[in-house]
């Protein structure tokens, strides 16, 4: 079996205790090998998902009957847009664990496969009631994305409404939910309301999981210019000097904000929702939960 290099400082003990407990069913040397590959998956998932996928496949060949391994392969496949493979791996993990935790990301795989109708069917399935609050919010985000995929922009707005959106409390998912709602409002022409919700998303986004600040700048007509770019010009047409005055008077958002027009997807597919970062956390922390519940009927 072809192996990939793993830094000596990676020991495998970086994994959550639950994952290490699963690996105890393997011979120690093999368990250590699998653990180190899983750590590499988690470390690379955000910055180099293709390489993370390669490490995940090695772990799969070594220990295909470990739920956390199947989940890790699922996340790596998801991050590299191999949605058919991701769905199969999440289903395999579900067979092993019986958990519904990954139901939202499985539904998002259906979106990735161009089947938003199946996504909406999953959003109404009994498994959703088994999710914790964070999982139910994630399912709502995915369902709203499916509505927009189907051209139902107004329905997407309604899908995101609920007590979690109205709450003033801040949870790990609050910024993403507010951001998604702002983006949905903008899609139906409710610009003033959208601006308010982007501001609320920014207020809750202490971890920087969204680009709400860029979207606000875009709505306000603010344009950021790189002071170190010799090609950059000020509003008057002169070159930006090296004094640090790198922002012109009228600034607009980074063009990258265009890529964030559909934040409703769950766990990692949408850049603005920080889904890759979430997936990486899931491999190190939630991977142990091996929570990938599959629904054979979902396909």
From TrEMBL:
Alphabetical list of InterPro entries matching this protein: TPR-like_helical_dom_sf (IPR011990)
Compositionally biased tracts (Acidic residues): 253-263
Region of interest (Disordered), residue spans: 230-299
Superkingdom as given in the UniProt entry: Bacteria
Extent of Low complexity compositional bias: 280-292
Signal peptide as annotated in the record: none
Protein name: Tetratricopeptide repeat protein
